[in-house]
Design brief:
This protein has helices spanning about 1-25, 45-55; strands spanning about 35, 75-85, 90-100, 105-110, 120-125, 145-150, 155-160, 170-175, 180-185, 190. It is α+β, with helices and mostly antiparallel strands. The chain has a domain at about 30-35 and about 75-190: Immunoglobulin-like. A hairpin with a 4-residue loop joins strand 8 and strand 9 (about 180-185). This is Electron transfer protein with DM13 domain. Keywords: Membrane, Transmembrane, Transmembrane helix. Pfam families: DM13. InterPro entries: DM13_domain.
């Protein structure tokens, strides 16, 4: 009996230490707040771009002059979607902007989710599925990883690759690579 205790106790301590190192349970109780500046845009900016690009549109938006060119001078919101919860409660909004230079940015606005050991920000070609069935949907579809999430609370902005095509990526997913589950996802709708 003493041999079991003599070897069992140290093995249990080692197993516990490994489990703590792998699962990092303290992250569930620690928030990392990020407050990146969300690009300034207005509803008129998005409407003005639409009105200017529609064939046969002779209207000049209130915030533009007849002499203005077709290139916006501020970011234009082109898609957005609200997060739904998967493995962990997740709220907030995903916003995709087209910048005046033609590049794109993703903003996660008012994000609130659990902290995790290896959570990535993904664009996915998969659908957003509610409930437990949606926890693993993203892994079965092509994805574009933007890297590790900056924080689990607040606002954060990610620059997107130069060749990013918003129509290829209808979903934003907060994906935990270590456990192979989605914390939450947002289906993007064109604005």
């Amino acid at each position: 009996m003493k041999k079991v205790v003599k070897f069992g106790a140290p093995l249990a301590v080692i197993a516990l230490a490994i489990a703590i190192a792998v699962f990092k349970p303290w992250l569930l109780f620690v928030d990392k707040e990020v407050n990146d500046e969300i690009p300034n845009f207005t509803a008129q900016t998005a409407q003005a771009t639409t009105a200017q690009s529609e064939p046969g549109s002779n209207e000049t938006p209130n915030n533009a002059t007849a002499e203005s060119n077709d290139t916006p001078t501020t970011p234009v919101l082109i898609a957005q979607g609200d997060f739904i919860s998967h493995e962990h409660e997740t709220t907030g909004r995903a916003l995709v902007f087209k910048l005046p230079n033609g590049n794109h940015q993703l903003a996660l606005e008012n994000l609130a989710t659990s902290n995790g050991p290896d959570v990535k920000v993904w664009f996915s070609q998969g659908p957003v599925v509610e409930g437990v069935a949606g926890w693993t949907t993203a892994k079965d579809h092509p994805h574009l990883s933007l890297g590790t999430i900056k924080g689990n609370v607040g606002n954060q902005v990610y620059d997107l690759p130069a060749d990013f095509n918003p129509s290829d990526w209808p979903t934003v997913d907060l994906w935990c690579e270590q456990f192979g589950v989605s914390f939450g996802a947002a289906a993007l709708q064109k604005v």
